[in-house]
């Protein structure tokens, strides 16, 4: 700044004065950027939940204003010289030395600013890199103008100053446009596209909404996804984690918030029935959903579990609302619900010992009926009778339906053979 302004004023070179004015703006802009980066690096707080990094965008707008002011001064002076038709410029050797030094310095700081902006994702440093790049072009234009004056074209200095002013206005316009887009929360098109693609690649995830905003080179994503209504909270949380990872993989450092909703499109009739049943706050569980198809119509039955202390009247009202809502589904002719109390923890008598004769009888029944030895056999004494836990092997080639049928038949056989058993839980393994 000192070299170009000093030599420019001493030699009456408008080109050097114009680059000197621009360098004066550089000093002010660098100071603004310094404080903006420091402010932007502060963590989020109660008043600024998204952080302070938009201070960098504001500093870029301030830098653009400085550029516009310096460019306007250069344009006015250049036009006056062109209209006056005279120039007292004497292009001595040190004038060329100063502008050559300016070119080297501008190239160096433009490269440093651009590399640092990429490394730290800083809008302020990125705006500085644009600014310094325009300085390089301006310095080259001034050098060409000085060469033109040296070769007899006396207006070359004023013309080069106008070229510098054009570069200044271009850089300022770009800074204003890009940072105004960020401050107006304009959707970053490329980031939106890659985030959409990443979420679409996830299985069983239906994207309802993606809102993306940028602040100081960092993205904030607000995502709403729909999943099958039968998924448990743990599964829904895992889905949300998968969405977060997918967005962060393509947009590193993004702050992602995922809201999960039950899907309403592309569901089977069973999923719709389950979603309707679970939408009732007092329904703790819906199971044994069975759909009977006949003549293009569907008859639906399901079991509803409600808190054990519910009155029958209250439970009946819930069942009627569920039946009415399911009956409104296409081609559903009738709905039947079976009400059950939600199971409570059952006290076990730890001092009670299992009857060895009963254990031997159980093993014999399993061998005779299931043709496989009983494993992990355990009897739990309860006030209603003994509860039997048992494991059997049904073979690796068995289907799930076959294994379930064998377990159900074995449970019934054990109840008949041993009346003291209140319940049987058969675990099947391949």
Q: What do these coordinates show?
A:
The protein has four domains: 2-183, Alpha-lytic protease prodomain-like (Up-down Bundle); 199-262, Cation efflux protein, cytoplasmic domain (Alpha-Beta Plaits, 2-Layer Sandwich), CATH 3.30.70.1350; 269-341, Cation efflux protein, cytoplasmic domain (Alpha-Beta Plaits, 2-Layer Sandwich), CATH 3.30.70; 356-429, Cation efflux protein, cytoplasmic domain (Alpha-Beta Plaits, 2-Layer Sandwich). The mean pLDDT is 82. The protein has 430 residues and is an alpha/beta fold. The chain has helices at residues 2-11, 14-40, 54-84, 93-120, 123-150, 156-183, 189-200, 233-250, 269-278, 312-327, 356-370, 400-417; strands at residues 206-215, 218-227, 255-262, 285-294, 297-306, 332-341, 375-382, 385-393, 421-429.
Give a brief outline of the structure:
This protein is an alpha/beta fold and 430 residues long. The protein is 56% helix and 20% strand. α2 (14-40) runs parallel beside α6, α3 (54-84) packs parallel to α5 and α4 (93-120) packs antiparallel against α5 (123-150).
Blueprint of the fold:
Layout: H1 2-11, H2 14-40, H3 54-84, H4 93-120, H5 123-150, H6 156-183, H7 189-200, E1 206-215, E2 218-227, H8 233-250, E3 255-262, H9 269-278, E4 285-294, E5 297-306, H10 312-327, E6 332-341, H11 356-370, E7 375-382, E8 385-393, H12 400-417, E9 421-429
Parallel strand pairs: 2-3, 5-6, 8-9
Antiparallel strand pairs: 1-2, 4-5, 7-8
């Amino acid at each position: 700044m000192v070299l170009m302004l000093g030599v420019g004023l001493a030699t009456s070179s408008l080109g050097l004065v114009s680059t000197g004015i621009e360098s004066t703006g550089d000093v002010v802009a660098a100071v603004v950027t310094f404080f903006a980066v420091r402010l932007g690096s502060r963590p989020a707080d109660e008043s600024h939940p998204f952080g302070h990094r938009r201070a960098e965008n504001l500093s870029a707008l301030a830098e653009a204003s400085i550029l516009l002011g310096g460019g306007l001064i250069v344009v006015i002076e250049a036009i006056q010289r062109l209209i006056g038709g005279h120039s007292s410029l004497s292009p001595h050797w040190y004038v060329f030395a100063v502008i050559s030094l300016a070119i080297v310095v501008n190239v160096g700081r433009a490269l440093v600013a651009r590399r640092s902006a990429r490394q730290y994702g800083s809008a302020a440093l990125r705006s500085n890199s644009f600014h310094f790049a325009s300085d390089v072009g301006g310095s080259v234009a001034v050098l060409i103008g000085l060469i033109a004056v040296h070769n007899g074209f006396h207006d070359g200095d004023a013309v080069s100053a106008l070229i510098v002013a054009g570069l200044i206005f271009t850089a300022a316009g770009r800074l204003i446009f890009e940072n105004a887009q960020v401050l107006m929360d304009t959707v970053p098109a490329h980031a939106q596209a890659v985030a959409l693609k990443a979420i679409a690649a996830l299985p069983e995830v239906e994207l309802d909404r993606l809102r993306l905003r940028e602040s100081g080179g960092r993205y904030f994503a607000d995502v709403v996804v729909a999943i099958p209504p039968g998924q448990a909270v743990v599964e829904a949380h895992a889905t949300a984690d998968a969405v977060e990872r997918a967005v962060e993989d393509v947009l590193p450092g993004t702050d992602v918030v995922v809201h999960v909703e039950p899907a309403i499109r592309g569901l089977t009739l069973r999923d719709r029935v389950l979603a309707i049943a679970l939408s009732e706050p007092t329904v703790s569980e819906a199971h044994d959903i069975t759909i009977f198809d006949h003549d293009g119509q569907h008859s639906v039955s399901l079991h509803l579990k409600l808190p054990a202390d519910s009155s029958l009247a209250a439970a009946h009202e819930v069942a009627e609302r569920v039946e009415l809502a399911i009956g409104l589904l296409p081609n559903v002719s009738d709905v039947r619900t079976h009400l059950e109390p939600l199971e409570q923890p059952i006290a076990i008598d730890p001092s009670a010992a299992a009857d060895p004769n009963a254990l031997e009888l159980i093993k014999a029944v399993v061998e005779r009926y299931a043709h496989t030895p009983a494993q992990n056999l355990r009897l739990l004494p309860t006030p209603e009778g003994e509860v039997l836990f048992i494991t059997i092997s049904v073979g690796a080639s068995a289907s799930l339906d076959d294994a379930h049928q064998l377990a159900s038949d074995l449970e019934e056989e054990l109840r008949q053979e041993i009346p003291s058993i209140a319940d049987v839980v058969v675990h099947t393994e391949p």
